[in-house]
Structure formats: structure tokens, C-alpha cells
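Hi V.,

You were right to ask for the full record rather than a summary. Here it is.
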Amino acid sequence: MKTLNAPDTISGKEGRAYAKINGNNEELFFAKSVEANVDKNKSEVKSIGKRMTGHKVTGLNGTGSMTLYYLTPLFRSMIADYKKTGVDLYFDMVIENEDPQSSAGKQSILLMGCNIDSTVLAKLDGDSDDPLEEDTDFTFEDFDILTPFNKF
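Predicted structure:
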């Protein structure tokens, strides 16, 4: 019987994220958290003689979110460039998990065609003693699993 060894779980602090923007690799060292999700698009299929509604998968939708420390002009600049030129910027992102304690090994996921939905333009908070943060949502057009975790 297999059991979970606690050291094999993945620490969320052990990893990196990179964005390839305009040919430059930008390490997202200012990110507090990054998450990307893929949802299935489904159509309902109703038929005579069945009381239950069926579901047909018709595609996928990629979305993500980042919580960043409010200290980089990177995403604000991208939105400002779009405002000035009308040309939106798409970029690729690699998110890596690599916890040296875990025998799961390294996982690298490539997100292609990322596009920022929104970003904080300006922010102040005189009521907080914590560093300023911003939440940024994005979409992506495709993905690839470059390096999967080891199988258990």
C-alpha cells in the first residue's frame, strides 16, 4: 500500500516564473503567487428518452492570476503602450515548481499567448503596514507541459 510522504508535497515557495516579453526573459521575482487554470467548454446535449442532460466538451479556456508586490512598471507599461499604439502585447510565461525536498522532481509549464486583463495603475494605502500588492488577471491561448512531475 502506498502512502504519502510529507516531504514529497510541494512547497509553494520553491519555484520560479518567467515571462518572455518583446524577446526579453523577465524573471517575475516580484510575484507573490501565480496560478494558471484550464477550464473545459461544454455544450449541453439533451435527447429524447434521457432524463439526464449530457455534456460534450467543445474546447478549452485558459485563465490565470498573479499577486505581485507593487514595485514593477512592467504590466502598467504594457497597458500604457496599448493605449498609445492600439497594439496589444502577448507574451509567453514559464512557471516552474522545484522543491529540493520532494522526490516529485521539477515541473515546468509553458503558457503561450498570455495577455493581461487588468493591472493596478496607481495605489496608496495609509492604513496598512504591509507592502503594497496588486492582483493581475490574464488569459492564455495555449500551454505545454515541458517537464512533468515524476510519477509515484
